[in-house]
Task: structure prediction
Amino acid sequence: MLWVKAFHIIAMVCWFAGLFYLPRLFVYHAACEDQAGRERFKVMERKLYRGITTPSMVATLVFGSWLLSYNASGYLSQGWLLLKLLLVAVLIGYHFYCGRLVKVFRDDANQRSHVFYRWFNELPVLVLLAVVILATVKPF
Result:
């Protein structure tokens, strides 16, 4: 079980690295004024989303589900875990919205400013704080 937990944490760290960096790329991309720079951001965004962030999300979910399988009824009766799983669902939605934004930028259809993406970039930070506190402190 400890190996599964270790791989779950490693995958989660990689997933969050992508969720932190991808919106930061959107900030820079939205502020970019030259075509060569925009094309470079398109490649970076696509590779980060498809090559690192999405596989890391899948691995996080696989290892997390594996951990749950050890005692599903016991774990799912704990309030902290139910809230954590709700926050994971929010992150999955955020992840797929980022994928949509990768396509928006790819198609040169972005309508939002770099300021929007600076704020958008903060959501996974808040979720990470809550998830770590829930999983560590188990307040209820």
Observations:
- The chain has one domain: 2-137.
